[in-house]
């Protein structure tokens, strides 16, 4: 679903592209909890990868 949202929004996999694709996805979700999970999995993991230079273990940052 997420990669397809990149296709639909014509965005790349840069941090800006990840944020745009996440926003496109989040608009279709009714659950704030699911939005938070996807934000941590998509946007925050991408930001960590760009900052650290390597992938990190998946972690949910919102209780």
Short key terms for the protein model shown above:
about 60 residues; mainly alpha; 3 helices; about 0% strand; flat
Describe this structure in words.
The longest helix is centred in the middle third of the chain and has 21 residues, at 32-52. The termini are far apart. This protein has helices at residues 2-9, 15-26, 32-52. The protein contains three helices and no strands. The chain has 63 residues and is mainly α. It has one domain. The chain is flat.
Distance between the termini: 24 Å
Poorly predicted regions: none
Indicate the percent of residues in helices. Answer: 55-70%
**Count of helical regions:** 3
Number of domains: 1
The Cα radius of gyration reads 11 Å
Q: H/E order of the elements?
A: HHH
* Major sheet summary line: none
Mean pLDDT over all positions = 90
The outline comes out as flat
Structural class: mainly alpha
Strand content is under 5%
């Amino acid at each position: 679903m997420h990669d397809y949202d990149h296709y639909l929004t014509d965005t790349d996999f840069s941090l800006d592209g990840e944020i745009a694709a996440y926003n496109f996805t989040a608009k279709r979700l009714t659950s704030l909890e699911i939005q938070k999970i996807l934000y941590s999995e998509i946007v925050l993991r991408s930001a960590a990868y760009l900052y650290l230079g390597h992938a990190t273990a998946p972690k949910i940052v919102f209780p």
